[in-house]
Write a structure and sequence with these properties.
Blueprint (H helix, E strand, L loop, with lengths): L5 H16 L3 E2 L8 H11 L5 H12 L1 H9 L4 E7 L5 H12 L3 E8 L2 H14 L4 E2 L2 E2 L2 H8 L6 E6 L9 H13 L6 E7 L4 H8 L5 H17 L8 E8 L4 E8 L3 E5 L4 E5 L4 E8 L3 H11 L1 E8 L5 E8 L2
Parallel strand pairs: 1-12, 2-3, 2-6, 3-4, 3-5, 6-7
Antiparallel strand pairs: 7-14, 8-9, 9-12, 10-11, 13-14
Length: 323
């Protein structure tokens, strides 16, 4: 099981206190991804309802050479740095093609889950014995800052799986600006965006009949119990998801089934829940092309090229630093 540092636990406790003291109550989705949460999310990515994985995999499988040429830009040497790498299934498609075309690449996956990194490293070392791979566990920006001037080679930062959709607009712009600050002029940013589409298709991805997404959300309560000494009874909460087409965002909640009080030892606090009171857990933003272009421009980037799947469900957008 992933261990947390004292500083990380303090930040986790502070954020839980702030979230459960607010009205309405909320918990930050960034804490979903402990080792167990990462395992749940890997199951989610394999669900037939979760179209995002298949759409991005199609892009990588059918447009691999176009992506390689755009990354390389006349130079066959570049470094791939993946933020939140997960199990690396989609990235492996790119790496396999790049190596077959004799690209001089290195691969550095960054993740907060050491367990996920260990599994990814073992998988890639077996599949690509000649690949230079260095896993990095920790905060994206601290690690990227240390890599900023490393040898002058082009860095391709990968932020895939529409993870950006978990951020609000202001958070997204702040995130991209922080990435820009640790990039060199020749570096590129490759981001997955889930596009707007039939709301019924979207909703099924966040409210699957197998209950995996529900377990993924509920796991955050289990993490609070384990790391902060909480006494959440998971059976007293139910997962609920909805899609709001006006704001183009899916939202998920945990709803208290009854009146109850939860005590969290590390906070020295108890929190009361009314029957059917909600904890807001996550937003999953869906994008239009004008929204993507506006995010790039406001963050100090320009869209270099967009790649789409055949249904136009998904876009992998390649950004370069603007002047």
């Amino acid at each position: 099981m992933q261990s947390s540092t004292c500083a990380e636990l303090t930040q986790f406790a502070d954020d839980v206190l702030k979230g459960l003291s607010s009205k309405p109550k909320a918990l930050s989705s960034k804490y979903f991804y402990d080792d167990e949460g990462t395992r749940y999310f890997q199951q989610i990515m394999k669900m037939p309802e979760y179209y995002l994985t298949g759409a991005e995999l199609e892009i990588f499988s059918t447009q691999t050479e176009k992506i390689r040429r755009t990354f390389a830009n006349g130079d066959n040497g570049f470094d791939l740095i993946e933020l939140g790498a997960g199990d690396g299934t989609k990235t492996a498609v790119l790496v396999d093609h790049f190596l077959k075309h004799n690209a001089d690449i290195t691969y550095s996956p960054i993740d907060i889950s050491q367990e996920a990194l260990d599994a990814l490293s073992a998988k890639f070392n077996a599949q690509f014995p000649n690949l230079k791979i260095e896993t990095r566990n920790g905060d994206y920006f601290k690690i990227l800052k240390s890599l900023k001037n490393g040898g002058g080679r082009r860095k391709i930062l990968l932020f895939l799986g529409s993870n950006i959709g978990n951020f609000g607009r202001d958070q997204s712009i702040d995130f991209f600006r922080q990435l820009r600050a640790v990039m060199n002029p020749n570096d590129l940013l490759f981001i997955g965006f889930d596009l707007q589409k039939d709301p019924h298709v979207i909703l099924k991805a966040y409210d699957d009949p197998q209950g995996i997404t529900a377990a993924f959300n509920l796991n955050l309560l289990r993490r609070i119990n384990r790391e902060l000494g909480g006494d959440f009874d998971l059976d007293k909460f139910v997962h609920y998801a909805l899609y709001r087409p006006v704001e183009c965002a899916a939202r998920s909640f945990l709803i208290s089934r009854e009146q109850q009080t939860v005590h969290i030892e590390a906070l020295g606090r108890s929190f009361s829940f009314e029957p059917w009171e909600a904890i807001f857990m996550e937003i999953s933003q869906k994008y239009s092309l004008p929204m993507i272009e506006a995010l790039a421009a406001e963050s100090g980037f320009a869209v270099k090229q967009n790649f789409f799947d055949s249904k136009y469900y998904y876009c992998d957008s390649l950004w370069q630093l603007s002047a």
